Amino acid sequence: MAEPHSLKTDIKVFLAVPEANLREILVYLLKAWEYNVVLIQEGQDMAELARQENPNLIIIDAAFEHKQGLKVCRRLKDDFLTSYIPTIVLIDKRQLRRDLLSIEQGVDDYLIKPPDPIDLEIRIVLALRSAAHHFNANALTKLPGNKLIEKELIQRMEAGQDFSFHYIDIDNFKSYNDKYGHLRGDRVIIETAQIISQCVKENGAAEDFVGHIGGDDFVVVTEPLRSENVASAVIDRFDARSGDFYTREDRQNGFIVACDRSGKVTNIPLMSLSIAIVNNTSDNPLNLLEITDIAAELKKYLKGQKGSNYMVNRRVLDKGMTGRKRDVRSEPLRH
Questions:
Q1: N vs C: which end of the chain shows fewer Cβ within 10 Å?
Q2: Which residue has the higher pLDDT, 140 or 61?
């Protein structure tokens, strides 16, 4: 039942078990199966650690944090930054009967303590497979990928919700990646994902959504009234951080010498953000294709501007040509 070892060495498992004997056995088993085990101690903030380290799986004892393990699970599932992480709870039979509803709402699977090693190994493999298939998370940032982004938009449209769709793109990322290498490029992607996620948490609503299309393209879905605050916060934080990605010389120059997309050696400006914002409201509903078309048009315009900017589409007027031919009326740029 075990997965090939070459696929498991990078799988990080958070283990939160207060009972020493059980913890020792589980650590032995997990390491024998070649998982990367991270022990979480009583008093540590599990939710914050999960946000920072993005584990592939969490195994938590219901007795963790003075028998508050199920509440910790609920917190993880309520936070979009950690909701995708599969969680297995270890619980005794008496607590299982008492807290069955909480278990159903807050965890992905459970095992009666002490777990049978074969059962545990099977549950771990199935949880990891299910997470990879169901959530379709981006492998680098662990944010929801294209399928979940599409699902989120369709659900909001079918429910008749007003929302703002943010298409976020890192300008000049390809040139940076070519010059500094893929490892440095991955670092930029990961930190940008963290910046976006944190800004949405601080400035958005609890139901907001953050996704990663792939490469240097991200998506935010938030409330229209919060959209500009979110965009401004993301830009401010990215601009404050982006200079640290470069050498001192490039930072002082304000550009890097690299090949542009046509292969010509030229001075490429430092990275910035373009954020195209499309408002979808009940008095002017759009379909999925229209939302993406308008976002692409706004993005194309923004890419020609200097520095980090966002543009908000507030009104869309039918030009009478086809359902997709719309005239984008947007707010002024924000520098």
A1: N
A2: 61
